[in-house]
Amino acid sequence: MLLQEGKGQLVGWHDPDENRKWVEANKPRDMTDKTMTAQEAVSKYVTDGSYLAMGGFGHVRVSMVMIYEMIRRRKKNLIMAGKTAVHDIDLLIGGGCVDRVEVAYAFAHELRGLSPGGRRAVESGRVKVVSEISNAGYQWRFLAAQMGLPFIPTRAMLGTDTLEKSSAKVIRDPFSGKPICLLPAAYPDVAVIHVPRCDKFGNCQIDGTMVEDFELARAARRLIISTEEIIPNDEIRSKPWLTKIPYFNVDAVVEQKYGSHPCQMPLEYFFDEEHIGEWLDLSKSDEGNQKYMDKYVYGTEDFADYIKLIGGEKKMKELVDVEHLRRPMTAPWLKNKGGE
Amino acid sequence: MADYTTNELLACTAARVLEDRKAVFVGTGLPMIAGLLAQRLHAPNMLIVFEAGGIGPQVPVLPISVGDSRTIYRAIAASSMHEVMSMSQAGYLDFGFLGGAQIDMYGNLNTTVLGPHGSPKVRLPGSGGANDVGSLSHKTILIMRQDKRKFVQKLDFITTPGYLQGGNSRYEAGLPSGSGPFRVISQLAVFDFEPVSKRMRIFSVHPGVDVKTVLENSSFEILVPDEIRITQPPTKDELDMLQKIDPVGMVIAKR
């Protein structure tokens, strides 16, 4: 029956009955006020050694407020879901929080090029890649967990080293008779998702694409929501079809305007390319990395303090204009592009 | 010398492979530019799909990320990765675009690692959506810089399946029937795959390039057809449109 077994580490799997029991005991069904500070959310729900997944898309709708707080609180030995991990994992590696990663996509910034810091960490052995997977594969691992199933089949990954280094297995499908790849469920110990608005209980609306946050929110054991804005429960109830994540999946609600800077918040503000450029430049060396952390993370008390440092409301208004196509984007990395 | 850059030639050549009334799955950079170029010139009814969930947008300017909000500008849906990857697995996606650090004669790709996996010489991003696109699209188009280090006898890591070990091996592994690499586009030539062995073969050479140069810039043996076509050079219309698609020069140099 078993045709092939991936040799990658099986990260975040639980027996479905064990997880049902955990959910029964640990996820209250009543609506309670879950608002707290970033610091409280980190100390309550992010423990050293946890398996962590960040929502959004690596540098789109990422909870930077929680990432900076995890670095500030010196979280250690996290295993990260590299489910299109871009700026999120770069900072967490640079901050010394992550030492293992299951990679679908990591150590690069899409059009901006490869990540100097992330690559250095892996190539020196400081950060270990424990398994490989594809993007579709990763989000289907979350879908299996959301559904309470031990695994989910896919026709991707077959025949490749991606499968060989993953935690998937191949069997012969009893219906079609063809080989099929089985992806194990993934239950992150903690997931952090940034949203434009939610109520104090954690009922969330999300604008733009969901990426894989629908599945991730339901797969994670603990879920921290950071939000641009807290809205009244009445507003949720007046348009219940807009609720993408319900309160009973949520453990903490942290309100933080501009909480995704320097990443993009779809329909609100654009990437701060100047800031990302500064990071890409500084993260070329360990000294530069330290300089960035000292200035922007350890040197600021909280995220509001950080927003002041990067230029405050004036800067954010510019990024709002770029997002709404009222102003063209500029980026330091553009100098090296398009030349050929 | 011809009055166009390599990126312009790659973008125009890739765009022409795309057909109207089909669906194309695009990644950032050249694939996105090729998709937008095709849509604005010969394929106005082409459906563009992005892996983070953008379906059918009228993209205003080149996005930086396949997840950024430019990919849902005037789209028909802002959905999810589960939705678009399921579309692909169910057979709705005709074309997918891919690139890589290494390619072999069967169109398998490496974007994971150079050197051993456990002690990498260069760590690359990994599969991302590439394995899914290469596994599940009906036809994949591979855009690659060509030289002996990139066109290799043996990949350091098979991230994304082409025709695997050639012949029927792709389908025997369980990948969807009839799917696989369709064209490879390099700065020197366009390649297709010989139908039985599934080995890479010259389809056309670019203007001013001879067959010998194409063959010399590969570590594996490329098949040569009896008749050699010449790739059509970019037209003025295409070059003008490229400037509008990428006005700030992210991929296409400003003229």
Explained architecture:
The complex is a heterodimer of chains A (340) and B (255). Chain A has helices at 16-26, 38-45, 64-72, 87-94, 116-123, 135-146, 161-164, 213-219, 233-238, 273-282, 286-298, 303-309, 312-323, and strands at residues 2-5, 51-54, 78-82, 98-103, 128-132, 151-154, 169-172, 179-184, 190-198, 204-205, 222-230, 243-245, 252-255. Chain A is an alpha/beta fold. The mean pLDDT of chain A is 96. In chain A, strand 2, helix 3 and strand 3 (78-82) form a beta-alpha-beta unit. Helix content of chain A is 34%, strand content 19%. In chain A, strands 2, 3, 4, 5, 9, 10, 11, 12 and 13 form a nine-stranded mixed β-sheet that branches. In chain A, strands 1-7-8-6 form a four-stranded antiparallel β-sheet, with helices on one face. Chain A has a single domain (2-335), classed as Glutaconate Coenzyme A-transferase (3-Layer(aba) Sandwich). Chain B is α/β, with parallel strands linked by helices and 255 residues long. Chain B has one domain (6-245): 3-Layer(aba) Sandwich (Glutaconate Coenzyme A-transferase). Chain B is 23% helix and 18% strand. Chain B contains seven helices and 14 strands. Chain B is globular and about 45 Å long. Classes of the chains: A alpha/beta (340), B alpha/beta (255). The interface between A and B is large, with 72 and 69 residues.
